[in-house]
TrEMBL record:
Keyword Secreted: no
Keywords annotated in UniProt: Iron, Metal-binding, Oxidoreductase
Pfam families, alphabetized: 2OG-FeII_Oxy
Keyword Oxidoreductase attached: yes
SUPFAM superfamilies xref list: Clavaminate synthase-like (SSF51197)
Family: Belongs to the iron/ascorbate-dependent oxidoreductase family.
A molecular function (GO) term: oxidoreductase activity
Record organism: Gossypium lobatum
Domain Fe2OG dioxygenase: 51-166
Protein name: Fe2OG dioxygenase domain-containing protein
InterPro entries per record: IPNS-like_FE2OG_OXY, IPNS-like_sf, Oxoglu/Fe-dep_dioxygenase_dom, Plant_2OG-oxidoreductases
Top-level taxon of origin: Eukaryota
């Protein structure tokens, strides 16, 4: 359910969930803003409100339902990928099934392995998306993740995707590039990234190769 304005949401979103979904989206907005300000401020990038709003961009609420599977080892709810957005805010039920891959360059014992993100009552899971990885010049890594089904209970998750506008130019922040000495991603329009993401079969984090410079 893509959000443009309240009137459109009330007219077009399913009546069974529109009010609570709209409340969920609105109450998360300030949290997303504060998270972005903290993450970007940590990189030395102090951005004004208009720039933060551009990073948040368009918001979308999804509702995912994963049926019980008698042989969960033979299927995957969602195959491995990273989100192409800025941040993903995930509300999940108590069933579990979300796994992230620990990158090889992270100093952890489980590096390169899949680790389950256990649901915590009253808590949200936050995924960094491809755009934030690019804006940070690779300082932050988008989360490669999968969803696995279970043989005992069905699973429900409700993510909010914050997606910049298609006409937005994407390029690493100059403050970060100055510190790093070089940009690791080229400049492009987000619409071109979306076309590449949806137009080609993508596996793991292969889609982000579209943004890399020849020297990255």
């Amino acid at each position: 359910m893509a959000y443009t304005n309240d009137d459109e949401a009330l007219q077009q979103w399913p009546v069974e969930c529109r009010d609570v979904a709209l409340q969920y989206l609105k109450t998360s907005h300030e949290m997303v803003r504060k998270l972005l300000e903290a993450l970007l401020g940590n990189l030395g990038a102090e951005l004004d409100d208009s720039k933060i709003d551009a990073f948040i961009g368009k918001k979308m609420v999804n509702m995912n339902f994963y049926l019980t599977c008698p042989n969960p080892e033979l299927t995957i709810g969602v195959r491995r990928h990273s989100d192409m957005d800025t941040l993903t805010i995930l509300l999940q039920d108590g069933i579990g099934g979300l796994y992230i891959k620990i990158p090889q360059d992270v100093n952890m014992e489980q590096k390169g392995e899949w680790v389950e993100i256990p649901p915590i009552s009253g808590a949200l899971a936050i995924n960094i998306g491809d755009m934030l990885q690019i804006w940070s010049n690779g300082r932050y890594k988008s989360a490669e993740h999968i969803v696995r089904t279970t043989s005992t209970k069905s699973r429900v998750s409700i993510p909010i995707f914050t997606r910049t506008q298609p006409t937005q130019k994407i390029v690493p922040l100059p403050q970060v590039v100055e510190k790093d000495g070089a940009a690791h991603c080229k400049e492009f329009l987000f619409s071109d990234y979306m076309n590449n993401f949806f137009g080609n079969a993508h596996h793991s984090k292969k889609s982000i190769e579209f943004a890399k410079t020849n020297s990255a």
